[in-house]
Design goal:
By secondary structure, the chain is α+β, with helices and mostly antiparallel strands. It is built from 2 helices and 5 strands; from the N terminus they run αβββββα. It has one domain. It is 16% helix and 27% strand. Strands 1-2-3-4-5 form a 5-stranded mixed β-sheet, with no helix packed on it. The chain is globular. The termini are far apart.
């Protein structure tokens, strides 16, 4: 049963590049933009027609911060009629850089050191 599942599953997946429209469902087009959160993360914009009028729906999970060294900046999607998004941290203020500057120091200070080595050996 597992072998059959593994063989059949890939047909349900489709690769897509940022900025290119995917039209796998009649009347619906989806375009992905870089969310800048983790490598490969994306926001999606669905274009469709509702009651004869074009509509755009934006969907995203976590959105990254601009200016990080190894992750590309998030690309904001074009204007949409509605947005569905993840909101775990939506009700908090996050001053840029504050947490990132403090966290590595706190982690380094929490490592017990003996004989000048974190492992106690020299």
């Amino acid at each position: 049963m597992r072998r059959t599942f593994r063989k059949k599953t890939p047909r349900f997946f489709l690769g897509a590049t940022y900025g290119s429209a995917v039209k796998e469902v009649p009347g619906v087009r989806v375009t992905f933009t870089d969310a800048g959160h983790i490598l490969g993360s994306a926001s999606a914009v669905l274009d469709c027609v509702d009651d004869g009028k074009p509509k755009r729906l934006g969907f995203n999970g976590d959105i990254g911060l601009a200016g990080l060294p190894i992750i590309r900046d998030p690309e904001p999607p074009a204007a949409v009629n509605a947005v569905i998004m993840e909101g775990t941290y939506g009700n908090r203020d996050h001053p840029f850089g504050t947490v990132r500057a403090i966290a590595p120091c706190a982690t380094a200070n929490a490592i017990p050191v003996s004989n000048g080595s974190p492992h106690g050996k020299r």
